[in-house]
Backbone:
């Protein structure tokens, strides 16, 4: 129904549409919002959780950087899923693109989150404590007393008792509720936020230290026979069985170090479980290399040799059988070579050896190649036979034995093609170029003579150790960062942030005491007698157990009970 003030057919007025934001403005807003979301503490916590979650495959799956053979076996056993997992870099987790992306996002998020908080904390340190609220009775902790003292004297005494607090005294002002009022604002516990910031700064330093270490580290593994006769020097990557270095490394700049393994001792429990591995070694470093001085030391599991910024770890061990081959002309060849432990519980090991006839024994090169000797089989440190099948019952070398196949023919030693250290080339066997002569079980000192008069003797076995030489220039910074993190976390958990306000104002006569009627007060206070009211209020920034008891103790210390005349 129309009241006549506006024509019924008048067009409706539309509200003006907001101006459309330009494309650069929208892009800038998107970047700004994305940055705010990335640098929030919630995002940092989510990324930290994702980083821990992303590290789980690195602990559950074999990693190519540690054992490429295990990775190949894992992929071969899963013909469909294995290649997909390999494309997703699940066998190289800590070097994968997705782990690196989470790592970098976490680093950026922490830096973007912590720096503004550090600036705000620096400003807060220069800011005076806030003025006292008008009604202290509304605070979680409150107490009021009347004392026979002058307000200035009470204020001076309270300031003296609040030593160690940040205290600001204010007199009167527009917000004063009473004539001659004095207020004190006190704060304590600023180190709590400092500890929180130190913890996060330590976390950033830890991430940076790990990243720097991965850029400039190198790590090499070398298997050494533990007889005191074999040594190696870290002159180049070629001195190691396997070697890898960081993104900024090129295999040069290795610390000169020579190591000789004198012996190895393994301690086992009755069930065969390893208890401790110990090895006595000699080493040369620095001027020892030119003076030919060997220094003796002992290394154990988790107790490496630390020298010249490098660490030499005792990572594992195994057995190296020794065989002697006597050729028909009476010349011999003796070889000691490590065999691979296939059973980590009993150390049943497998391996292979290849022997080339002595020079000049055969004038024809083809004839010499047809008379090479190869051995492939199993070694048991404590022999256990099931018929003719050899097994091992204990990892210690109590009763060693071998079960071997002896081959004669072309072992492929001079073909230039790479061969496995622990097995013979099956193609040579399938082509008939390497022919099996005998299958035999041997104990130390026993031998087997082939049809052409060649004799193969098992001489026993010795221990070998797997040494790892590692260099990480940022390792000490990782330790320092971790200690700083723990110190900051401890401070943030122990220290409490709290505030206390004190309002002091004079009062005279019973009628001036709020909350008390005149008849009651006249019974204790004479007319015209002058007193001072002290109100205290306390507030913890966060709920803290025990703050109420601390506030009561603080009140007892601030208010001298001998001067108190009335408590409200």
Residues:
């Amino acid at each position: 129904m129309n009241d006549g003030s506006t024509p019924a057919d008048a067009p409706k007025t539309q509200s003006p549409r907001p101006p459309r934001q330009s494309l650069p403005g929208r892009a800038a807003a998107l970047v700004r919002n994305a940055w705010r979301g990335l640098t929030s503490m919630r995002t940092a916590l989510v990324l930290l959780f994702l980083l821990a979650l992303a590290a789980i495959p690195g602990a559950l799956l074999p990693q190519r950087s540690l054992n490429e053979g295990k990775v190949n076996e894992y992929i071969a056993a899963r013909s469909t899923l294995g290649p997909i997992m390999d494309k997703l870099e699940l066998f190289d987790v800590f070097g994968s693109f997705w782990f690196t992306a989470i790592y970098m996002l976490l680093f950026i998020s922490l830096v973007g989150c912590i720096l503004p908080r550090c600036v705000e904390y620096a400003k807060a340190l220069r800011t005076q404590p806030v003025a006292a609220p008008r009604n202290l009775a509304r605070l979680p902790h409150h107490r009021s007393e009347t004392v026979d003292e002058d307000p200035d004297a009470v204020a001076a005494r309270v300031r003296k008792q609040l030593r160690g607090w940040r205290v600001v005294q204010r007199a009167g002002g527009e917000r004063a509720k009473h004539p001659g009022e004095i207020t004190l604002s006190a704060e304590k516990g600023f180190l709590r936020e400092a500890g929180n910031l130190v913890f996060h700064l330590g976390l950033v330093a830890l991430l940076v230290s790990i990243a720097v270490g991965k850029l400039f580290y190198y790590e090499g593994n070398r298997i050494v026979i533990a007889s005191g006769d074999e040594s190696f020097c870290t002159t180049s990557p070629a001195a190691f069985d396997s070697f890898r270095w960081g993104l900024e490394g090129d295999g040069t700049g290795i610390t000169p170090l020579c190591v000789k393994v004198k012996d190895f001792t393994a301690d086992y429990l009755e069930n065969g479980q390893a208890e401790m591995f110990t090895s006595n070694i000699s080493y040369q470093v620095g001027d020892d290399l030119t003076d030919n001085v060997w220094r003796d030391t002992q290394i154990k599991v988790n107790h490496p040799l630390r020298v010249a910024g490098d660490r030499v770890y005792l990572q594992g061990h195994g057995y190296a059988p020794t065989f002697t081959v006597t050729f028909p002309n009476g010349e011999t060849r003796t070889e000691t070579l490590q065999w691979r432990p296939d059973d980590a519980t009993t150390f049943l090991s497998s391996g292979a050896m290849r022997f080339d006839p002595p020079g000049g024994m055969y004038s024809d090169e083809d004839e010499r190649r047809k008379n090479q000797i190869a051995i492939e089989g199993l070694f048991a440190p404590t022999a256990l036979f099931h018929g003719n099948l050899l097994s091992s019952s204990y990892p210690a070398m109590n009763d060693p034995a071998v079960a071997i196949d002896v081959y004669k023919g072309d072992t492929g030693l001079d073909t230039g093609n790479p061969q496995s250290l622990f097995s013979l080339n099956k193609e040579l066997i399938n082509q008939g170029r390497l022919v099996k002569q005998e299958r035999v079980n041997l104990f130390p000192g026993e031998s087997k003579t082939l049809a052409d008069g060649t004799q193969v003797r098992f001489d026993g076995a010795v221990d070998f150790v797997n040494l790892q030489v590692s260099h990480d220039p940022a390792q000490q910074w990782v330790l320092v960062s971790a200690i700083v993190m723990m110190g900051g976390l401890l401070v943030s958990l122990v220290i409490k942030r709290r505030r206390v306000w004190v309002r002091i104002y004079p009062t005279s006569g019973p009628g001036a005491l709020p909350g008390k009627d005149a008849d009651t007060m006249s019974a204790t206070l004479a007319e015209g007698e002058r007193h001072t009211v002290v109100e205290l209020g306390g507030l913890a920034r966060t709920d803290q157990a025990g703050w109420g008891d601390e506030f009561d103790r603080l009140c007892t210390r601030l208010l001298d009970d001998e001067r108190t005349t009335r408590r409200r």
Remarks:
- Residues 147 and 564 are 4 Å apart (CA to CA).
- Confidence is low (pLDDT under 50) at residues 509-528, 561-568.
